[in-house]
Amino acid sequence: MGLWTRVREWRSRSRVAKVDIYMRWSLYGLPVVLPALGTVNVLAGSGLTRAWTVALGAILTLQGALGIPVFRQSIDHYLWKKPAPWWRLAVQGVLFLAALVCMAVSFHAYGQEYVSTIGLFLWNGSLSALGPYTLLARRIRSFMGACAAVALLLGTGLLALGASFGAAATVTVTVAALGLWCVSVVRTSGWMLHVLWELETARKAQGRLAVAEERLRFSRDLHDVLGRNLAVIALKSELAVQLARRGSADAVAQMSEVQRIAQDSQREVREVVRGYREADLHTELVGARGVLSAADIDCRIDDTVGKTLPPDVQAVLAWVVREGTTNVLRHADAERCAVRLRVVAGTTAVLVMENNGVREPKRVPGSGSGSGLAGLRERLTVLGGTLTYEHRSNATFRLTAEVPLADPAEAPGEANGADEPHEIAVPVGGTVPVGKAPLTADEVPVTGGTA
To answer: Which domain range does residue 258 map to?
Structure first.
Protein backbone atom coordinates (compact mmCIF):
# COMPACT_ATOMS: atom_id res chain seq x y z
CA MET A 1 0.00 0.00 0.00
CA GLY A 2 1.51 3.32 -1.09
CA LEU A 3 2.07 6.33 1.10
CA TRP A 4 -0.46 8.43 -0.80
CA THR A 5 -3.09 5.72 -0.38
CA ARG A 6 -2.49 5.71 3.36
CA VAL A 7 -2.77 9.50 3.46
CA ARG A 8 -6.08 9.38 1.60
CA GLU A 9 -7.39 6.71 3.95
CA TRP A 10 -6.38 8.83 6.93
CA ARG A 11 -8.13 11.90 5.50
CA SER A 12 -11.29 9.89 4.84
CA ARG A 13 -11.61 8.87 8.50
CA SER A 14 -13.91 10.70 10.84
CA ARG A 15 -12.54 13.04 13.48
CA VAL A 16 -13.44 10.59 16.22
CA ALA A 17 -11.58 7.79 14.43
CA LYS A 18 -8.51 10.03 14.12
CA VAL A 19 -8.59 10.85 17.83
CA ASP A 20 -8.99 7.14 18.58
CA ILE A 21 -5.90 6.26 16.55
CA TYR A 22 -3.84 9.08 18.08
CA MET A 23 -4.68 8.12 21.66
CA ARG A 24 -4.13 4.42 21.03
CA TRP A 25 -0.69 4.88 19.51
CA SER A 26 0.29 7.28 22.27
CA LEU A 27 -0.38 4.47 24.74
CA TYR A 28 1.38 1.97 22.48
CA GLY A 29 4.48 4.09 21.99
CA LEU A 30 5.30 5.46 25.45
CA PRO A 31 6.20 2.09 27.06
CA VAL A 32 8.42 1.22 24.06
CA VAL A 33 10.19 4.42 23.04
CA LEU A 34 11.14 5.83 26.43
CA PRO A 35 12.68 2.63 27.90
CA ALA A 36 14.52 2.08 24.60
CA LEU A 37 15.97 5.60 24.69
CA GLY A 38 16.98 5.13 28.33
CA THR A 39 18.72 1.86 27.49
CA VAL A 40 20.66 3.53 24.69
CA ASN A 41 21.70 6.26 27.12
CA VAL A 42 23.02 3.68 29.59
CA LEU A 43 24.96 1.87 26.84
CA ALA A 44 26.44 5.14 25.64
CA GLY A 45 27.63 5.93 29.15
CA SER A 46 29.10 2.84 30.82
CA GLY A 47 28.20 0.12 28.36
CA LEU A 48 27.90 -3.43 29.62
CA THR A 49 29.65 -2.55 32.89
CA ARG A 50 26.16 -1.74 34.13
CA ALA A 51 24.62 -4.96 32.85
CA TRP A 52 21.72 -5.10 35.32
CA THR A 53 20.53 -1.63 34.37
CA VAL A 54 20.81 -2.52 30.66
CA ALA A 55 18.88 -5.73 31.33
CA LEU A 56 16.19 -3.72 33.11
CA GLY A 57 15.79 -1.41 30.12
CA ALA A 58 15.79 -4.30 27.65
CA ILE A 59 13.10 -6.20 29.58
CA LEU A 60 10.85 -3.16 29.82
CA THR A 61 11.37 -2.34 26.12
CA LEU A 62 10.37 -5.91 25.24
CA GLN A 63 7.43 -5.65 27.59
CA GLY A 64 6.29 -2.45 25.86
CA ALA A 65 6.53 -4.05 22.40
CA LEU A 66 4.59 -7.11 23.55
CA GLY A 67 2.11 -4.83 25.25
CA ILE A 68 0.85 -3.24 22.01
CA PRO A 69 -1.67 -6.04 21.22
CA VAL A 70 -2.54 -6.20 24.93
CA PHE A 71 -3.42 -2.50 24.91
CA ARG A 72 -5.37 -2.86 21.67
CA GLN A 73 -7.49 -5.74 22.97
CA SER A 74 -7.98 -4.07 26.35
CA ILE A 75 -9.22 -0.86 24.73
CA ASP A 76 -11.54 -2.87 22.46
CA HIS A 77 -12.84 -4.67 25.54
CA TYR A 78 -13.47 -1.38 27.33
CA LEU A 79 -15.17 0.24 24.32
CA TRP A 80 -16.93 -2.64 22.60
CA LYS A 81 -16.99 -5.46 25.19
CA LYS A 82 -14.70 -7.69 23.17
CA PRO A 83 -12.77 -10.58 24.82
CA ALA A 84 -10.16 -9.55 27.38
CA PRO A 85 -6.47 -10.56 26.87
CA TRP A 86 -5.96 -12.20 30.28
CA TRP A 87 -3.20 -14.60 29.20
CA ARG A 88 -1.15 -11.86 27.57
CA LEU A 89 -1.64 -9.73 30.64
CA ALA A 90 -0.20 -12.55 32.74
CA VAL A 91 2.92 -12.54 30.54
CA GLN A 92 3.17 -8.77 31.04
CA GLY A 93 2.98 -9.26 34.78
CA VAL A 94 5.81 -11.83 34.74
CA LEU A 95 8.03 -9.51 32.68
CA PHE A 96 7.30 -6.63 35.04
CA LEU A 97 8.29 -8.74 38.06
CA ALA A 98 11.52 -9.69 36.26
CA ALA A 99 12.16 -6.00 35.65
CA LEU A 100 11.62 -5.23 39.33
CA VAL A 101 14.18 -7.89 40.25
CA CYS A 102 16.70 -6.32 37.86
CA MET A 103 15.94 -2.92 39.36
CA ALA A 104 16.56 -4.16 42.90
CA VAL A 105 19.84 -5.85 41.90
CA SER A 106 20.91 -2.71 40.02
CA PHE A 107 20.39 -0.53 43.10
CA HIS A 108 22.25 -3.05 45.25
CA ALA A 109 25.19 -3.31 42.82
CA TYR A 110 25.54 0.25 41.53
CA GLY A 111 23.90 2.39 44.21
CA GLN A 112 22.09 5.53 43.06
CA GLU A 113 23.75 5.63 39.63
CA TYR A 114 21.19 6.01 36.81
CA VAL A 115 18.44 6.46 39.40
CA SER A 116 16.58 8.94 37.14
CA THR A 117 16.79 6.54 34.20
CA ILE A 118 15.56 3.64 36.32
CA GLY A 119 12.68 5.81 37.53
CA LEU A 120 11.78 6.53 33.90
CA PHE A 121 11.92 2.79 33.21
CA LEU A 122 9.61 2.07 36.12
CA TRP A 123 6.98 4.71 35.31
CA ASN A 124 6.63 3.77 31.66
CA GLY A 125 7.02 0.04 32.20
CA SER A 126 4.12 0.13 34.63
CA LEU A 127 1.86 1.36 31.82
CA SER A 128 2.19 -1.93 29.91
CA ALA A 129 1.76 -4.05 33.04
CA LEU A 130 -0.86 -2.14 35.03
CA GLY A 131 -2.47 0.06 32.35
CA PRO A 132 -4.55 -2.69 30.69
CA TYR A 133 -5.81 -3.77 34.13
CA THR A 134 -7.32 -0.32 34.62
CA LEU A 135 -9.37 -0.85 31.44
CA LEU A 136 -10.45 -4.37 32.36
CA ALA A 137 -11.46 -3.50 35.94
CA ARG A 138 -15.16 -2.81 36.22
CA ARG A 139 -14.62 -0.08 38.81
CA ILE A 140 -11.71 2.23 39.50
CA ARG A 141 -12.22 1.68 43.22
CA SER A 142 -11.50 -2.02 42.82
CA PHE A 143 -8.24 -1.37 40.97
CA MET A 144 -7.06 1.32 43.37
CA GLY A 145 -7.99 -0.85 46.36
CA ALA A 146 -5.88 -3.67 44.95
CA CYS A 147 -2.94 -1.28 44.37
CA ALA A 148 -3.23 0.04 47.95
CA ALA A 149 -3.32 -3.51 49.34
CA VAL A 150 -0.23 -4.52 47.34
CA ALA A 151 1.59 -1.34 48.39
CA LEU A 152 0.90 -1.96 52.08
CA LEU A 153 1.84 -5.61 51.75
CA LEU A 154 5.19 -4.76 50.16
CA GLY A 155 5.92 -2.07 52.74
CA THR A 156 5.09 -4.42 55.60
CA GLY A 157 7.19 -7.17 54.06
CA LEU A 158 10.22 -4.92 53.77
CA LEU A 159 9.87 -3.90 57.41
CA ALA A 160 9.67 -7.55 58.39
CA LEU A 161 12.87 -8.25 56.44
CA GLY A 162 14.68 -5.56 58.39
CA ALA A 163 14.49 -2.66 55.95
CA SER A 164 14.32 0.87 57.26
CA PHE A 165 11.03 2.65 57.67
CA GLY A 166 12.03 5.19 55.02
CA ALA A 167 12.69 2.48 52.44
CA ALA A 168 9.41 0.72 53.23
CA ALA A 169 7.50 4.00 53.00
CA THR A 170 9.17 4.83 49.69
CA VAL A 171 8.12 1.48 48.18
CA THR A 172 4.58 1.83 49.50
CA VAL A 173 4.13 5.34 48.14
CA THR A 174 5.75 4.40 44.81
CA VAL A 175 3.41 1.45 44.21
CA ALA A 176 0.34 3.55 45.08
CA ALA A 177 1.60 6.37 42.81
CA LEU A 178 2.09 3.91 39.96
CA GLY A 179 -1.55 2.88 40.28
CA LEU A 180 -2.70 6.51 40.15
CA TRP A 181 -0.39 7.15 37.19
CA CYS A 182 -1.87 4.28 35.19
CA VAL A 183 -5.43 5.36 36.01
CA SER A 184 -4.79 8.98 35.02
CA VAL A 185 -3.14 8.02 31.72
CA VAL A 186 -4.80 4.82 30.54
CA ARG A 187 -8.24 4.71 32.11
CA THR A 188 -8.84 8.40 31.43
CA SER A 189 -7.86 7.91 27.77
CA GLY A 190 -10.26 4.98 27.49
CA TRP A 191 -13.04 6.98 29.13
CA MET A 192 -12.53 9.90 26.71
CA LEU A 193 -12.66 7.54 23.73
CA HIS A 194 -15.83 5.96 25.09
CA VAL A 195 -17.50 9.37 25.38
CA LEU A 196 -16.41 10.41 21.87
CA TRP A 197 -17.73 7.22 20.27
CA GLU A 198 -21.02 7.57 22.14
CA LEU A 199 -21.36 11.12 20.80
CA GLU A 200 -20.60 9.89 17.27
CA THR A 201 -23.27 7.21 17.60
CA ALA A 202 -25.76 9.75 18.95
CA ARG A 203 -25.01 12.09 16.07
CA LYS A 204 -25.76 9.41 13.50
CA ALA A 205 -28.92 8.42 15.35
CA GLN A 206 -30.01 12.05 15.40
CA GLY A 207 -29.75 12.22 11.61
CA ARG A 208 -31.77 9.04 11.19
CA LEU A 209 -34.42 10.25 13.65
CA ALA A 210 -34.76 13.56 11.82
CA VAL A 211 -35.52 11.73 8.57
CA ALA A 212 -37.86 9.31 10.33
CA GLU A 213 -39.76 12.13 12.04
CA GLU A 214 -40.23 13.93 8.72
CA ARG A 215 -41.55 10.77 7.10
CA LEU A 216 -43.88 10.20 10.04
CA ARG A 217 -45.20 13.75 9.82
CA PHE A 218 -45.89 13.42 6.13
CA SER A 219 -47.57 10.02 6.53
CA ARG A 220 -49.71 11.46 9.34
CA ASP A 221 -50.78 14.37 7.12
CA LEU A 222 -51.69 11.99 4.30
CA HIS A 223 -53.65 9.79 6.70
CA ASP A 224 -55.60 12.77 8.01
CA VAL A 225 -56.47 13.85 4.47
CA LEU A 226 -57.17 10.49 2.85
CA GLY A 227 -58.43 8.36 5.73
CA ARG A 228 -61.90 9.85 6.04
CA ASN A 229 -62.39 10.43 2.31
CA LEU A 230 -61.41 6.88 1.38
CA ALA A 231 -63.80 5.50 3.99
CA VAL A 232 -66.63 7.61 2.53
CA ILE A 233 -65.71 6.54 -1.03
CA ALA A 234 -65.80 2.88 0.00
CA LEU A 235 -69.22 3.23 1.66
CA LYS A 236 -70.78 5.18 -1.19
CA SER A 237 -69.34 2.80 -3.78
CA GLU A 238 -70.86 -0.17 -1.94
CA LEU A 239 -74.18 1.66 -1.74
CA ALA A 240 -74.04 2.48 -5.46
CA VAL A 241 -73.43 -1.19 -6.26
CA GLN A 242 -76.47 -2.24 -4.23
CA LEU A 243 -78.63 0.46 -5.83
CA ALA A 244 -77.46 -0.53 -9.31
CA ARG A 245 -78.39 -4.15 -8.66
CA ARG A 246 -81.88 -3.01 -7.69
CA GLY A 247 -82.11 -0.87 -10.81
CA SER A 248 -82.39 2.35 -8.80
CA ALA A 249 -81.53 5.64 -10.50
CA ASP A 250 -79.95 6.85 -7.26
CA ALA A 251 -76.84 4.76 -8.11
CA VAL A 252 -75.78 7.43 -10.60
CA ALA A 253 -76.08 10.15 -7.95
CA GLN A 254 -74.00 8.11 -5.52
CA MET A 255 -71.27 7.54 -8.09
CA SER A 256 -71.26 11.26 -8.92
CA GLU A 257 -70.73 11.90 -5.23
CA VAL A 258 -67.88 9.36 -5.22
CA GLN A 259 -66.32 11.18 -8.17
CA ARG A 260 -66.58 14.51 -6.37
CA ILE A 261 -65.01 13.15 -3.18
CA ALA A 262 -62.18 11.56 -5.19
CA GLN A 263 -61.48 14.87 -6.93
CA ASP A 264 -61.48 16.69 -3.57
CA SER A 265 -59.09 14.08 -2.19
CA GLN A 266 -56.76 14.55 -5.14
CA ARG A 267 -56.77 18.29 -4.58
CA GLU A 268 -56.12 17.92 -0.86
CA VAL A 269 -53.24 15.51 -1.48
CA ARG A 270 -51.68 18.05 -3.85
CA GLU A 271 -52.01 20.70 -1.16
CA VAL A 272 -50.34 18.42 1.37
CA VAL A 273 -47.48 17.67 -1.02
CA ARG A 274 -47.13 21.34 -1.92
CA GLY A 275 -47.05 22.31 1.73
CA TYR A 276 -44.52 19.58 2.42
CA ARG A 277 -42.26 20.92 -0.30
CA GLU A 278 -42.60 24.58 0.59
CA ALA A 279 -39.90 25.90 2.91
CA ASP A 280 -39.05 29.35 4.22
CA LEU A 281 -35.54 30.49 3.30
CA HIS A 282 -34.98 32.66 6.38
CA THR A 283 -36.25 29.90 8.68
CA GLU A 284 -33.97 27.34 7.04
CA LEU A 285 -30.91 29.61 7.32
CA VAL A 286 -31.57 30.25 11.00
CA GLY A 287 -32.21 26.56 11.57
CA ALA A 288 -29.02 25.59 9.72
CA ARG A 289 -26.96 27.94 11.89
CA GLY A 290 -28.51 26.55 15.07
CA VAL A 291 -28.15 22.88 14.12
CA LEU A 292 -24.57 23.21 12.86
CA SER A 293 -23.53 25.29 15.87
CA ALA A 294 -25.00 22.63 18.16
CA ALA A 295 -22.83 20.09 16.33
CA ASP A 296 -19.75 22.26 17.06
CA ILE A 297 -19.47 23.39 13.42
CA ASP A 298 -18.60 27.03 12.78
CA CYS A 299 -21.40 28.23 10.48
CA ARG A 300 -21.10 31.56 8.64
CA ILE A 301 -24.10 32.87 6.71
CA ASP A 302 -23.94 35.82 4.32
CA ASP A 303 -27.50 36.64 3.26
CA THR A 304 -28.19 40.19 2.15
CA VAL A 305 -30.76 39.60 -0.58
CA GLY A 306 -32.79 36.64 0.67
CA LYS A 307 -35.90 38.63 1.63
CA THR A 308 -35.97 40.44 -1.73
CA LEU A 309 -36.18 37.28 -3.82
CA PRO A 310 -39.47 36.01 -5.27
CA PRO A 311 -41.33 33.53 -3.02
CA ASP A 312 -40.84 30.58 -5.37
CA VAL A 313 -37.08 31.25 -5.57
CA GLN A 314 -36.85 31.53 -1.79
CA ALA A 315 -38.71 28.24 -1.40
CA VAL A 316 -36.44 26.26 -3.71
CA LEU A 317 -33.26 27.75 -2.21
CA ALA A 318 -34.59 26.93 1.25
CA TRP A 319 -34.67 23.28 0.18
CA VAL A 320 -31.05 23.55 -0.97
CA VAL A 321 -30.08 24.86 2.47
CA ARG A 322 -32.03 22.09 4.21
CA GLU A 323 -30.52 19.33 2.07
CA GLY A 324 -27.04 20.82 2.36
CA THR A 325 -27.25 21.07 6.14
CA THR A 326 -28.44 17.48 6.40
CA ASN A 327 -25.52 16.31 4.28
CA VAL A 328 -22.97 18.24 6.35
CA LEU A 329 -24.22 16.47 9.48
CA ARG A 330 -24.51 13.01 7.95
CA HIS A 331 -21.71 12.77 5.39
CA ALA A 332 -18.89 15.00 6.62
CA ASP A 333 -16.79 15.68 9.69
CA ALA A 334 -16.91 19.41 9.17
CA GLU A 335 -15.40 22.08 11.35
CA ARG A 336 -16.59 25.00 9.22
CA CYS A 337 -19.55 25.62 6.96
CA ALA A 338 -20.32 28.80 4.99
CA VAL A 339 -23.48 29.82 3.15
CA ARG A 340 -23.52 32.78 0.76
CA LEU A 341 -26.49 34.10 -1.18
CA ARG A 342 -26.02 36.73 -3.91
CA VAL A 343 -27.78 38.12 -6.95
CA VAL A 344 -25.50 38.15 -9.98
CA ALA A 345 -26.07 40.77 -12.69
CA GLY A 346 -29.53 41.40 -11.27
CA THR A 347 -30.88 38.33 -13.07
CA THR A 348 -29.71 35.22 -11.21
CA ALA A 349 -29.81 34.22 -7.55
CA VAL A 350 -26.75 32.16 -6.60
CA LEU A 351 -26.54 30.16 -3.38
CA VAL A 352 -23.12 28.68 -2.50
CA MET A 353 -22.58 26.28 0.38
CA GLU A 354 -19.10 25.01 1.21
CA ASN A 355 -17.80 22.85 4.05
CA ASN A 356 -14.60 21.09 4.99
CA GLY A 357 -14.12 17.65 6.54
CA VAL A 358 -15.38 15.75 3.49
CA ARG A 359 -14.71 12.02 3.55
CA GLU A 360 -13.37 10.21 0.50
CA PRO A 361 -16.17 10.28 -2.13
CA LYS A 362 -17.52 6.87 -3.08
CA ARG A 363 -19.06 8.07 -6.34
CA VAL A 364 -17.58 9.84 -9.29
CA PRO A 365 -17.99 13.60 -8.80
CA GLY A 366 -20.74 15.00 -10.95
CA SER A 367 -22.50 11.68 -11.39
CA GLY A 368 -25.52 13.00 -9.52
CA SER A 369 -26.53 9.57 -8.35
CA GLY A 370 -27.49 10.76 -4.87
CA SER A 371 -31.25 10.93 -4.48
CA GLY A 372 -31.02 14.06 -2.31
CA LEU A 373 -29.12 16.07 -4.93
CA ALA A 374 -31.30 14.62 -7.67
CA GLY A 375 -34.40 15.85 -5.85
CA LEU A 376 -32.89 19.33 -5.54
CA ARG A 377 -32.06 19.38 -9.24
CA GLU A 378 -35.68 18.53 -10.09
CA ARG A 379 -36.97 21.41 -7.97
CA LEU A 380 -34.48 23.85 -9.52
CA THR A 381 -35.24 22.69 -13.06
CA VAL A 382 -38.90 23.70 -12.63
CA LEU A 383 -37.70 27.32 -12.22
CA GLY A 384 -35.05 27.05 -14.93
CA GLY A 385 -32.25 26.76 -12.36
CA THR A 386 -29.20 24.51 -12.13
CA LEU A 387 -27.36 22.64 -9.39
CA THR A 388 -23.63 21.87 -9.47
CA TYR A 389 -21.20 20.50 -6.94
CA GLU A 390 -17.50 19.69 -6.72
CA HIS A 391 -14.98 18.10 -4.38
CA ARG A 392 -12.19 20.60 -3.86
CA SER A 393 -8.75 20.54 -2.28
CA ASN A 394 -8.27 20.32 1.49
CA ALA A 395 -11.22 17.91 1.78
CA THR A 396 -13.80 20.61 1.00
CA PHE A 397 -17.06 20.34 -0.89
CA ARG A 398 -18.95 23.09 -2.68
CA LEU A 399 -22.62 23.02 -3.65
CA THR A 400 -23.89 25.79 -5.94
CA ALA A 401 -27.50 26.51 -6.88
CA GLU A 402 -28.41 29.09 -9.56
CA VAL A 403 -31.98 30.25 -10.12
CA PRO A 404 -32.98 32.90 -12.68
CA LEU A 405 -35.10 35.65 -11.19
CA ALA A 406 -37.12 36.17 -14.40
CA ASP A 407 -39.96 33.68 -14.80
CA PRO A 408 -39.17 30.96 -17.34
CA ALA A 409 -41.00 31.40 -20.62
CA GLU A 410 -42.69 28.09 -20.13
CA ALA A 411 -42.11 26.07 -16.94
CA PRO A 412 -41.88 22.34 -17.60
CA GLY A 413 -45.21 20.64 -17.05
CA GLU A 414 -47.26 23.83 -16.65
CA ALA A 415 -47.71 24.44 -20.37
CA ASN A 416 -49.38 21.08 -20.77
CA GLY A 417 -51.35 21.38 -17.56
CA ALA A 418 -49.33 18.58 -16.00
CA ASP A 419 -49.74 17.92 -12.34
CA GLU A 420 -46.98 18.71 -9.93
CA PRO A 421 -44.84 15.65 -9.25
CA HIS A 422 -45.90 13.84 -6.08
CA GLU A 423 -42.69 12.05 -5.20
CA ILE A 424 -40.96 13.24 -2.04
CA ALA A 425 -37.16 13.55 -2.07
CA VAL A 426 -35.84 12.53 1.36
CA PRO A 427 -32.39 14.05 2.09
CA VAL A 428 -29.76 11.41 1.48
CA GLY A 429 -27.04 12.50 -0.91
CA GLY A 430 -23.60 14.16 -1.05
CA THR A 431 -22.16 16.77 1.24
CA VAL A 432 -22.62 20.43 1.84
CA PRO A 433 -20.24 23.30 1.31
CA VAL A 434 -18.48 25.91 3.17
CA GLY A 435 -14.96 27.09 3.01
CA LYS A 436 -12.43 28.21 5.54
CA ALA A 437 -12.16 31.71 4.05
CA PRO A 438 -15.06 33.97 3.07
CA LEU A 439 -16.24 33.38 -0.46
CA THR A 440 -15.23 36.11 -2.88
CA ALA A 441 -17.18 37.41 -5.80
CA ASP A 442 -14.91 35.49 -8.14
CA GLU A 443 -15.92 32.24 -6.45
CA VAL A 444 -19.61 32.61 -7.14
CA PRO A 445 -19.60 31.28 -10.75
CA VAL A 446 -20.31 27.57 -10.76
CA THR A 447 -17.65 25.01 -11.51
CA GLY A 448 -17.50 21.26 -11.25
CA GLY A 449 -19.90 18.53 -12.27
CA THR A 450 -23.65 18.76 -12.35
CA ALA A 451 -25.39 16.94 -9.54
So the answer is: 210-276
